[in-house]
Description:
The protein is mainly α. It contains eight helices and no strands.
Amino acid sequence: MSGKIHTAESEGAFYRKKLFLSLIIPGTFIFFMWLVRIIEVLFEIDLSFLGIYPLKIRGLPGILFSPFVHADYQHLFNNSLPLLLLSAALFYFYSEVALRVFLWTYILTGILVWFGGREAWHIGASGLVYGLASFLFFSGIIRKYFRLVALSLLVVFLYGEMVWGLFPGIYKNISWESHMLGFFSGIVLAVWFRKEGPQMPVYEWMEEGESESESDIENGIESEGDGEGKGGN
Length: 233
C-alpha cells in the first residue's frame, strides 16, 4: 500500500515539475511582451516601427520584434492569455519538439507576413497564437492519438471563434493576414513534425495481430475464399 502511495506521489511530483517547466518559456516570452508595452507607456514612445512592414527593408526587423509590440493594453491582454495557454500546452504535450515548433511558428509566420501582408505596420503576437492553435489542432488529428485529439477538441472549444479572424473585414484594425498566415504555418509544421514527438502507442495485442497476419501471408493462408480462384459478383 505504501509503495502505491509513494508511486502516486512520485508521479504527481513529476507532472507538477513538467507543468512548471512547460510554463518557463511561455511565461518569459509574455513577460517581455508586457515589459515592452510598459516601456512604451512610461517613456511615451511608439515602437510600431519594430513591426513588420511587408516587402520593405525597414520592415524586416519586425519578423523578430513584432510579436512584442502591441497597440494598447487591451490588444496585449487579448494575446497574452491564449498565448500562455497554447504555448504551455505545446511544451507540456509536445516537449520533444516544442521549442523547435515554437521558434519555427514564430519565424515562419513573420516571414510569410512580410511577403504577403498589406502595406501597413503589422504588430502583435496574434500570428503566433493562430499558428500554435493550428498546430495543436491539426497535429492531434494527424497523429490519431486520442490524448492529442482530445487536446485538439479542447482548442476548438476554447478558441473556435478565432476562425473569424482569418477573414478580411470581420474585425477593424486587425492584421487578418497574420492570423491566416500563422494558421497556415501551424498546418505546415503539424505535417512537418508528424513523425516526431508523441505518437499513438502500439499495444501488445496490436503487435500480435500484425505478427499473425504476416505469418498467415507467409504460409499462403487467405482470409477470404478457398484460394481456388473462384470469382464472384
